[in-house]
Design a protein that fits this description.
Layout: H1 17-21, H2 30-47, H3 52-64, H4 74-77, H5 85-91, H6 94-104, H7 109-116, H8 138-153, H9 164-171, H10 181-194, H11 200-203, H12 213-216, H13 219-242, H14 244-260, E1 265-268, E2 271-274, H15 282-304, H16 306-317, H17 322-330
Antiparallel strand pairs: 1-2
Helix pairs in contact: 2-3, 2-8, 2-10, 3-7, 6-7, 7-8, 8-9, 13-14, 13-15, 13-17, 14-15, 15-16
């Protein structure tokens, strides 16, 4: 299989990735889920012959459709068993919170309404409003289909992603209950182009889940360059300011932490060495680099105190090239959140 075609639709506006990055402790594949939903929504709009301006609006709406989950506690989102009635009521509020997030990001009312409607069902059994059929906005109907497609293809914390062939089987169950059949047909007709294929029948032959890297384009490489450049700059500045001995002890502590957390990384000199790309997805990569930077913050806080360490990190960040700073900002890397390091030998 040629894989996801990242050039068929433009990459999402990265300024909207930050709300998804904030969800990673709740949903370890939040970024991929948003990217797939956004691209499916845009492709569906094109298949329905909507105006071109709506393609980009729906790409944005799909990317952000689950941003409202930031208001749901991780213990609820990752609960292994059945939710209580009270917990389910909390979950059902996330489209309304998502509407608030979209408005805060200055998105237009058409996009905001679509995000609010993305869990409404064609048979009226959805939420939060219990709308049915044409009571649901067209953009909401498109997002409902796109969200379901993405939910099937994207790995979840409790299961791997499903194969494209499984998607086609699952989608038959949605007709007339979950989604508008016409919108579903439009979405399915667009899927081959999104995967670099020419016919829907070709998808039926692929019975293995897709690697999540099919969905993220070159974003993983951008995140790696930004994080590695920042970490190298931190080590260089630490050696200059605190002296080589203190810097070496800090590196020793970080290496112990890496072993304890089973990350295949090694800090040597002024560099972070990666033995292989250990991350399972773009979301997993972002979360782990955030933790690595948090471990550095913890080490520095042990030396100079957390307020000074964070202020110092801010000053180092401003020395990075602007394009790398922007990537880290888009993905929420520069938040200076310490992580627990036990033990941290050698750091005094």
């Amino acid at each position: 299989m040629s894989g996801w075609n990242p050039d068929w639709m433009p990459q999402p506006d990265k300024k909207f990735l930050l709300p998804l990055s904030a969800l990673l402790d709740r949903d370890p594949f939040a970024i991929e889920h948003g990217i797939i939903a956004g691209r499916c929504a845009a492709a569906t709009a094109k298949a329905l012959t909507l105006e071109e301006a709506t393609w980009h609006q729906l790409a944005c709406a799909g990317l952000l459709h689950d941003a409202g989950k930031i208001a749901i506690e991780p213990r609820i989102l990752r609960k292994p068993g059945k939710l209580t009635e009270e917990e389910w009521e909390v979950v059902k509020q996330h489209p309304i919170v998502g509407r608030t997030v979209a408005r805060a990001l200055k998105l237009n009312d058409w996009v905001v309404e679509g995000i609010q409607d993305h869990h409404e069902r064609w048979d009226g059994q959805g939420y939060p409003g219990g709308k049915m059929k044409d009571e649901i906005s067209l953009q909401g109907q498109i997002l409902a289909v796109s969200e379901l497609v993405s939910a099937v293809l994207t790995p979840r914390w409790y299961r791997p992603g499903m194969a494209p062939a499984q998607l086609l089987t699952e989608s038959r169950r949605w007709i007339g209950t979950h989604v508008n059949p016409e919108v579903l047909r439009a979405c399915l007709s667009a899927l081959p182009a999104l995967f670099g294929l020419s016919a829907l029948s070709e998808l039926e032959t692929f019975r293995s889940p897709l690697d999540s890297r099919h969905f993220s384009g070159d974003l993983e490489a951008q995140v790696y360059r930004a994080a590695n450049a920042f970490i190298s700059q931190v080590f260089w500045e630490a050696g200059r300011l605190f002296g080589q001995t203190v810097c070496e002890r800090t590196v020793d502590g970080l290496n112990q932490w890496a072993v304890a957390t089973k990350l295949p990384i090694f800090f040597s000199g002024l560099k972070m060495e990666v033995t292989y790309p250990w991350w399972e997805s773009l979301s997993h990569q972002v979360l782990n680099f955030r933790n690595i930077i948090g471990a550095i913050v913890s080490c520095l806080s042990g030396l100079v105190g957390e307020p000074l360490a964070c202020a110092w990190m801010d000053s180092i960040l401003m020395k990075l090239p602007e394009n790398l700073r922007d990537v880290g900002t888009d993905f929420g890397l520069w938040i200076w959140k310490p992580v627990e390091i036990v033990p941290l030998a050698g750091v005094r």
